[in-house]
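user:
I keep going back and forth on a fold encoding question. Separate attempts, laid side by side, tell us more than any discussion would. Would you put together a sequence-and-structure record for a protein of your own picking? Write it directly below this note and I will take it from there.

assistant:
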Amino acid sequence: MENMAFFFSELSLTQYSIMCDYKPSTIAASAVYCARIVLGRYPFWSNELKMCTGYSDEKLLCCVKVMMELCYETCKEGTMEVFKKFSSLYKSRVSCIAQEIFQEAFLS
């Protein structure tokens, strides 16, 4: 879970529009939200997370959408350095897990 959230956070650093349009706290919370989606952790955003971060799921959905689209594009190509970094065993191969999830979702 932690490495997946880090993957989304670092991935967002490569996207100028994310960095300019959202506060760092919004990006961090959205990275956790995205990680929970990819890993199938239900609920995707709980009351505990809302209380810890101060963000409702409605406030995060725009950023989450952009992050998920970026992840999809990155995983489709698999060439970006962030993808390669998080495909290592040291990072639990989370980028490969995300890649498999996206492939299954769009091939089904």
Residues 74 and 80 are 7 Å apart (CA to CA). Residues 57-77 form the longest helix (21 residues).
